[in-house]
Every structure is written in structure tokens, then in C-alpha cells.
From TrEMBL:
<keyword id="KW-0479">Metal-binding</keyword>
<dbReference type="InterPro" id="IPR020550">
    <property type="entry name" value="Inositol_monophosphatase_CS"/>
</dbReference>
<dbReference type="InterPro" id="IPR020583">
    <property type="entry name" value="Inositol_monoP_metal-BS"/>
</dbReference>
<dbReference type="Pfam" id="PF00459">
    <property type="entry name" value="Inositol_P"/>
</dbReference>
<dbReference type="InterPro" id="IPR000760">
    <property type="entry name" value="Inositol_monophosphatase-like"/>
</dbReference>
<keyword id="KW-0460">Magnesium</keyword>
<protein>
    <recommendedName>
        <fullName>Inositol-1-monophosphatase</fullName>
        <ecNumber>3.1.3.25</ecNumber>
    </recommendedName>
</protein>
<dbReference type="InterPro" id="IPR033942">
    <property type="entry name" value="IMPase"/>
</dbReference>
<comment type="similarity">
    <text>Belongs to the inositol monophosphatase superfamily.</text>
</comment>
<dbReference type="GO" id="GO:0016787">
    <property type="term" value="F:hydrolase activity"/>
</dbReference>
<keyword id="KW-0378">Hydrolase</keyword>
Amino acid sequence: MTDPLRTELLDLALEAARRAGALLLDGRPADLGVAATKSSPVDVVTEMDLASERLITGFLADRRPEDGFLGEEGASTEGTSGVRWIVDPIDGTVNYLYGLPAWAVSIAAEYRGETVVGVVAVPPRGETYHAVLGGGAWRNGERVACRPSPPLESALIGTGFNYVAERRAAQAEVARRLLPRVRDIRRSGSAAIDLCDVGGGRLDGFYERGLHPWDVAAGDLVAREAGALTGGRPGRAPDGDLTVAASPGVFEVLQPLLEELGAWHD
């Protein structure tokens, strides 16, 4: 992959995320409601999710019509260029619906199956994270790095819960057993933000079961480029069974512990 292509993809992702973030901040209707549901009645889509995805995919397709897309709200095309955009138009939709500030726009670019660019814009914080494969991780133009690894009992760990009741109950049991072994657990409601917060030094680690490619593609690259380790079950990449990200010393202890606790199954 050439450096000019990498730069082009980053610039486009940053601009698409900026435009979508402005739409979501300035265009949120006072009476915002649920437009549809997905995996369960509490797993919601708003009209602004749909508008944000249309804006992002339209902007990118106008400039790179041969690229493919995978979007949370239905965008799916193969493309012929070797580039595929992975888009979460609002990561943290329930937060956005309720007016809570933990939501983000997540855009990643894959080239021939490998994530090479990731952008996570967090408009309520006034922050944008970005990473390029091999080029480090950045927040508002300043380089970031994960925290030095503490002992697990002093680690602050992020997690999330699925919207399907049976899976949520199993995840709650894992959290109950993990909680006495760490400093504390945080649940922001946005996996993209949590992954970036691992990279930016605001969390020591993060794990969650049931995530999708659009939830993790950009944030995973940010975390890795900031020096964190990421994976799924031992020996596997992050996937729908389990996503884990942490500073190296925490990861080496947390990943096998999550395997022991059964964080990868319901």
C-alpha cells in the first residue's frame, strides 16, 4: 500500500467523521425517537443513525466510487479497489438517544482485508482519535500511548453488555466474578470509545463479548498503535466471541482470566 493512498484514506475518514459529528451534534431533534430495533426491543436505531451513515457513505462513495462498504445500518457493497470502509455512524446510540455524552462516529479503512486507517470522533468531548497502521495513535493531533501496566488488582477495566437478555445475564456474572480482582469496572456504552481510552491511557483494559466489526475496527487500530495488545480468546484475533484490549502487562493476565471466567460464551 502506498503512502499517498494511506494519506488519502486518512484525510477522507477524518473529514467524513467531522461532517457526521457536526450533523449529530447540531441536527439532533429535541424529540428524537426510535426508528427501528435490532437484536432486541432495547437495541435501537434512531433516524440520526441512518442520516449519519448516509452522509458518511455518500461522502466517501463520491470520492472513491470503487471502494466497498460495511456499515452498521445496512451499507454493504463489495467494491473493486481493495479498500473497504467499515462504518459505525453512532457508536453508543442509546447514550445519544438519552442525551448522554459517550457516543462516537467510527470509521475504519481496510486494504485487502487489513485495517490501515482508523478514526473515532467523539464530538461531545471535542476529541478525535486517529491511527494509521505503523504510524502511531493520535488524539486531536497529539500522540497518545497506553498507560504503564499496573498489577491486575490496580487496573481500571472497561466493559459492555449485550442487548439480548440471556447474553447480558451471562456477562453480568463474568463482571461479578472479575470485579473483586481489579481496581474497578467502567461501562461507557461505546466500545469504540473504550478501545480509544485504552490507547489514550484512560483505561488499563477493556473486554466485551458480542461486538461486530464496525464496533471495533477503528478503535482496535488506535489501541494497537498506542502500544496496547488486542485479541479475542487466546491465540485469536478480536471477534464476536470476545474482544480484549489492554496495556501489555494487563493483557497477559486479563485475557487468560477472561477465558477461565467464560467471558466468551453465554
